[in-house]
Hints:
Number of domains: 1
Strand content: 25-35%
Largest sheet: 5 strands, mixed, barrel
CATH architecture: Beta Barrel
Shape: globular
Structural class: mainly beta
Order of helices and strands: EEEEE
Number of helices: 0
Number of strands: 5
Distance between the termini: 30 Å
Helix content: under 10%
CATH superfamily: EutN/Ccml
Amino acid sequence: MYLGRVVGCVWCAAKDRELEGQRLLVVQPITPELKPTGKRIVCTDAMGAGAGEIIYWVRGREASLPFLPRLVPTDTTIVGIVDTIHVPEAAGGVRAPGKRHARRGRPAA
Length: 109
């Protein structure tokens, strides 16, 4: 799953018949620290998310599962709306004391 923020919506007059009734939202992927990362994407919405909300989304085959038994042709879907995010201070690049981390090309000792 990935974090994102809803930044817009997509309206389509012509689309695949299996997308009828599905909301399409524009999502900006974000880091756990809420900083934008990567390009914006279009997701189907299985949760009723709104503009500005922080959400989590999935991609690949799992993106169509929330709509079963319908077979919706999607590869990205919003599957949750985030209430809170807690990121410990040890995360975000600061190493926890006593932990050894692998460097590129070298196994952890």
